[in-house]
Fold this sequence. Notes:
Layout: H1 2-15, E1 27-31, E2 35-37, E3 41-49, E4 54-57, E5 63-66, E6 69-73, E7 82-90, E8 96-106, E9 110-114, E10 118-119, E11 124-132, E12 137-144, E13 147-152, E14 155-160, E15 164-173, E16 181-189, E17 194-198, E18 202-204, E19 209-216, E20 220-224, E21 230-232, E22 237-239, E23 241-246, E24 252-261, E25 267-284, E26 289-290, E27 300-305, E28 314-316, E29 326-334, E30 342-350, E31 356-358, H2 367-374, E32 381-396, E33 400-415, E34 420-423, H3 429-432, E35 439-457, E36 462-485, E37 490-509, E38 512-519, E39 522-532, E40 535-547, E41 550-551, E42 555-558
Parallel strand pairs: 2-8, 10-16, 18-25, 26-30
Antiparallel strand pairs: 1-3, 3-6, 4-7, 5-6, 7-8, 9-11, 11-14, 12-15, 13-14, 15-16, 17-19, 19-23, 20-22, 20-24, 21-23, 24-25, 25-27, 28-29, 29-30, 31-32, 32-33, 33-35, 34-35, 35-36, 36-37, 37-38, 37-39, 38-41, 38-42, 39-40
Amino acid sequence: MRPLRVLLLWLLPVLFLPASGHGWECSVSIDGPHWVKLGGVVTLKASGLPEGGQYHWSATPNLVPHGDSATLTGFEPTFSESIRVTVRYDTPRGKSCRAIKWVYVYMPCEVVLSGPAEAEPGEEVLLAATGSPEGGAYEWRVSRGSGAITGLEGGALFRSDQPGEVVLEATYTPPDGGRSCKGHHVLDVSQKCSVSIYGAVAAPLGETVPLLAAGTPEDGTYQWVPLEGLNPKDSFSNAQMASGDYTPHTAGHHTVQIHYTTPEGQSCQGSHDLTAYKLESLSPRFACFDSGTTLSLNDFHLLTFPGGYENTVSFVPQTLWTLFQTQDVTVTGSCGRGHVNGAATTVQVVNKESRQEVSVLLEVPNFVNDALKMMGVGEATDLRLATDFARFMECCSGASVRSSTTGSVGMGLHVHGGPFTIVGIPLPPAIREYVTLDALAVGVSGQARMSMEGEHHGCTDLTHWSGSGDILAAIDVGGEVRILLPRQVIVFQGSIKGNTSVSKKISVSSQDLIVEGKWDGLIVAGDISLTYRTLIIKSEPILWEVLQEKPLKQSIIKLPSLK
């Protein structure tokens, strides 16, 4: 047993030599952390004996030598979870020895929270969370303060319920199920001073605008900033709201302001912008308007200051009326109530229902009298024209005022006296020596039907005539011869008669009146007898062609102008 003990005692110093040393002539060791996180930096320190030698570090990636030390940046190894680092030490006497160190690389759990640092009670706050390694799971809670938090994909939504400091916490568990980590976000929940003014943002110049101001936290103190036209209405201390009226005195943009102080002494200011506008100018787009026209924005050229409020303009009068043919009417436009906003212009109003009677001269040839003259009667008839024309003014498409005329013409045949007498009857010679007077009575009757319409449209400057008619005159001729000679008791007696007619038609062609017709002709026939007592001693027939049938020559009469 003794030799074995001696052998063990001899080997013992060898067993306790450093693992990296190579004999007592050279020894080296590497000191430093046993782990490094991915991307982290650690420093390694080599110690060699005997001192005074040189160190040679291995060509390990991300290893930077500095003599007896080196810095290592953690990276993901290819074949294991640790990085192998080697150092060789050369002693002053030329001996060499090596040391090896394995550094474990780990990926630490980290979570970073981001979001606003301040919020008001009841306000929703959105938090974002970034955990590494990626792909893990989050758990959210309020670790200090009060409120409700709801986890979302990539973050959370928090709503506070009262003022105070709130700490929001997220616990992140990596996807490999390793050790979890926590992240925190501090949020200061406080009621900040704020005040707002509510009211119309635009109003006509001179019109009063109600305003209402509300500040938070409530029950503070309000103070309106002085402004011409501003009329504060309420008390300003310990009030939930403040009200006032503002009446702008000039057109343009105005700003109303108010100061608010919270019960805790915080101060803030609110403002409200208001545009006061007015009608600068007003002019008609058209030269004239029909009576009864209801005015609209399209009837005028408008300009407001500031611009852009033309659609708010109204007019007085709203509807144009006149009883005259034409009349100038003043129209006032306004953006609101009162004359401070008004501009005026004059428009011409035309009433085409207001009409003035005018006469129209028209001559139609009297063919009936022509026939009567040939019978020795002369002018026993006339054609009387009745005219009913009126002139009025029209507004032609709003561009100009023109005169127009419209009306009608009627015609009637009138007989002067009658019956009429024709003398100079051609009696037979056997009878003529016994007759001292011969005559025929002529009776005339007639009718006329005619109506013509005439129109001059001033807007187109055109005259249009239309209509037609006809005239018919009947002429009856008759007479008696009766002479009594008592001594010889001889009586001459007899009668003759005949009838005819004159007819003509009247028509309108363009601007001409066309008259055409005919005479039917007149033959007077009868018998004259010589009687003694009751015996007819002698009887003679009479046949007299007074007029021959013939057509009348067509007459074309130029119709008068209605301008």
